[in-house]
């Protein structure tokens, strides 16, 4: 069976990176996807320790002071190009990513809300769940989507929803949404790869 190659970009805890890497090694998971490279824009984050534990080669590519998004993205994709990947997955990557022409339409992001609600600049991590609670939403969820030049704007590949329960805090809601994210991202990534 064909195996696909992905790079995963991270900024923080790296639970998605670990989940994707573990699924790829589990013969019962039916997930023929190898995580061949992880890139963090921040040094010293937990995601780098998880990459090492999972045997995923990892690099830190931190933005230089005053570096433009385009110059930063060009450096990131120079490294990605060497790894010859089928797709790039942003999993908790918190920086705007400029995408060169040869990778347009091949970059996937997971976002912890039902886009287009609660997306865009400033909406990441706990901020999303706090906004969902403040607005009084009764359902929320996560979105796997293709990335374009605008935050959280590209075509949607997959969404999964869950209820907002009475008494939820941003933390309890984040946990419930994350359970859905763990299912959504591998399914979204594999179904995208199989259609290429
Ligand atoms: N070109 C794109 N780049 C990125 C996208 C995207 O859709 N298109 N998605 C993000 C991930 N994301 C939500 O899914 C997201 C991440 C971060 C922010 C944000 O407001 N960031 C802050 C900085 C935060 C920090 O460094 O701590 C900011 O830009 O001021 C919004 C959305 C990944 N990249
Ligand atoms: N807008 C982007 C965003 O908020 N992404 C979110 O960051 C978390 C990363 O977790 P992880 O680093 O432990 O995989 C995930 O919940 C992901 O949806």
TrEMBL record:
InterPro entries: Formyl_transf_N, Formyl_transf_N_sf, GART, GART_AS. It comes from the Bacteria. GO terms for cellular component: cytosol. Belongs to the GART family. Its EC number is 2.1.2.2. Catalyzes the transfer of a formyl group from 10-formyltetrahydrofolate to 5-phospho-ribosyl-glycinamide (GAR), producing 5-phospho-ribosyl-N-formylglycinamide (FGAR) and tetrahydrofolate. SUPFAM superfamilies: Formyltransferase. It catalyses: N(1)-(5-phospho-beta-D-ribosyl)glycinamide + (6R)-10-formyltetrahydrofolate = N(2)-formyl-N(1)-(5-phospho-beta-D-ribosyl)glycinamide + (6S)-5,6,7,8-tetrahydrofolate + H(+). The record marks 152 as: Raises pKa of active site His. Pathway: Purine metabolism; IMP biosynthesis via de novo pathway; N(2)-formyl-N(1)-(5-phospho-D-ribosyl)glycinamide from N(1)-(5-phospho-D-ribosyl)glycinamide (10-formyl THF route): step 1/1. One of its GO terms (biological process) is 'de novo' IMP biosynthetic process. It comes from Saltatorellus ferox. GO terms for molecular function: phosphoribosylglycinamide formyltransferase activity. It is an enzyme of class 2 (transferase). The active site is at residue 111. It holds the Pfam family Formyl_trans_N. Residues 5-186 form the Formyl transferase N-terminal domain. This is Phosphoribosylglycinamide formyltransferase. (6R)-10-formyltetrahydrofolate binds at residue 109. Keywords: Purine biosynthesis, Transferase.
């Amino acid at each position: 069976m064909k195996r696909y190659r992905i790079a995963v970009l991270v900024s923080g805890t790296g639970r998605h990176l670990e989940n994707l890497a573990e699924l790829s090694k589990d013969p019962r998971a039916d997930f023929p996807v190898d995580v061949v490279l992880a890139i963090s824009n921040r040094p010293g984050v937990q995601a780098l320790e998880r990459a090492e534990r999972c045997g995923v080669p990892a690099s830190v590519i931190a933005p230089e002071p005053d570096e433009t998004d385009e110059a930063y993205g060009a450096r990131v994709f120079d490294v990605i190009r060497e790894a010859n990947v089928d797709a790039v997955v942003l999993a908790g990557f918190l920086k705007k990513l400029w995408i060169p022409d040869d990778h347009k339409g091949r970059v996937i992001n997971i976002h912890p809300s039902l886009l287009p609600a609660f997306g865009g600049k400033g909406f990441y991590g706990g901020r999303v769940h706090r906004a969902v609670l403040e607005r009084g939403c009764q359902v929320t969820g996560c979105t796997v989507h293709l990335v374009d030049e605008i935050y959280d704007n590209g075509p949607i590949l997959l969404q999964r929803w869950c209820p907002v329960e009475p008494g939820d805090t941003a933390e309890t809601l984040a946990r419930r949404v994350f359970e859905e994210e763990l299912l959504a991202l591998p399914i979204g990534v594999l179904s995208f790869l199989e259609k290429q």
